Amino acid sequence: MLTIEIDLASFEREAERFVEGIQRGMLDVARQTALDGAEHARATGRFQDHSGADGLRGSIRVLSSGRIARGGEASFGTTKSYGRFVESGTAPHEIRTRRAGALRWEQGGEIRFARVVHHPGGRAFPFMGPAAIKAEAVLYARAQALVAREIARAG
Predict the structure, then answer these.
(1) Residue 3 lies in a domain
(2) pTM, rounded to two decimals
(3) Does any domain span residue 56?
């Protein structure tokens, strides 16, 4: 006769440790992936940034990260409202004055003024989309590596 004894309490404790390790690790995975995504967007964005550290490129960063019920989450992006226009481009449009009496710009070495300007539109320079695609692939690889480490630890 063969008798098999299973200690469910011990199994449940180990299962809880495994799940806790995954959940704790997922926050680190999310944070690191958001950092890498932001760096990728800054490094590969092909737009011109005339404002230096205060411009679009300098504003790309991790926007939030934290624990959620079953792991972690993090996001990256830009704090500049015009980032979406750089990402997607713009159709031809009018630019009108808001508070000032006239718009001012330099063209051909001369200072020009106008109340309305007909902008021809702007070409798209995607930087967040490609960074998000790369970050997603890296996220899955990191998550798989985390699960493999936790399985090895529990084994």
Answers:
(1) no
(2) 0.79
(3) yes
